[in-house]
Amino acid sequence: MAHRAAPTRRPGSTLEPVSGGGTMARSRARPVSSGWPVLVAVLALAPAPARAARTSHLFMDESQLLPEGDVELENWLWTEGHIPDKPGRPVTSWIWIGPVVGLTSHLELQLPVQLVGSPEYGVIDAISLVARYRFFSREDDEGFQSLVRVEYQQPLSQYASPPLLKALFVVTHGNLHAFRVTANVGVQLGLPFLQSSASGSVSVLGTASLGISIPLGTELRLAGEVDGQLPFASNARPYPGQLFAGPSLAWSRGPMWVTFGCVFGLTHYSNQYQPKVLWGVTF
């Protein structure tokens, strides 16, 4: 499969609480047929052709794509720890979840929703439309492979950043059964003029990442990455930029995959830690 840039909400963004709240209705659960647990166990344990995880990394994208016609439910969960230079900033958690559709052997679309929460609140933060285009067919897994990821993110709450347009160039070298190197270079544009309630000028944030991964048998990959981001405009966030590094472990079997790990801040302006888990199931 294929990674991901990073993610969608990058570390270090500042949240400002607003007044108001809501309630959530609790529905009565219906009895579940006793056959479902057996079916799930069979799908999980039965021998099946192994697929690579969409990414072996945490905040990087890779060049894998879904097969044409496949649909996957993908989920990311991560936490942003304290920033030494901003002791009052709370620990914040994020959830990214949505369907992924393989349209062709070159093109994939995603429609994720992003939620954010802290000890004081939790909101639906934003919705995105993501297109990932691979220059060579997904069946070609040798040598250099390149991919472009373009995302438009629309805020859904006053906690969120202004509308964002993100572009990421991805290049990998090495196949999924051997040592592999991955590099990401991207830019994120904050576009407040697209939202009547937002103010300010266009912001520009540059991102870059470098990662390596190696196979551990047929179902595991061990990876490491270095992620950096630097604002090119004074109103871009985070400011004055951040740098992270850390390991991850990816597991895949049949239609399921899981990647988890943690990156650690290398500067006083970076979050001290950012644990993350990503998983997906293909239907």
Let me know the average pLDDT.
82
Q: Spell out the helices and strands N to C.
A: HEEEEEEEEEEEEE
CATH fold topology: Porin
Low-confidence stretches: 1-34, 39-50
Number of domains: 1
What is the fourth-level CATH superfamily? monomeric porin ompg
User: Would you count the extended β strands for me?
Assistant: 13
Number of DSSP helical runs:
1
Question: Share of helix among residues?
Answer: under 10%
Overall structural class, as computed from helix and strand content, comes to mainly beta
Strand content: over 45%
Gap between N and C termini: 13 Å
Anisotropy-based shape = globular
C-alpha Rg (nearest Å) = 19 Å
Account of the protein in words:
The protein is mainly β and 283 residues long. It is built from one helix and 13 strands; from the N terminus they run αβββββββββββββ. The chain has a single domain, classed as Beta Barrel (Porin), CATH 2.40.160. 4% of the residues lie in helices and 47% in strands. Strands 1, 2, 3, 4, 5, 6, 7, 8, 9, 10, 11, 12 and 13 form a 13-stranded antiparallel sheet that branches. The protein is globular. The two termini are 13 Å apart.
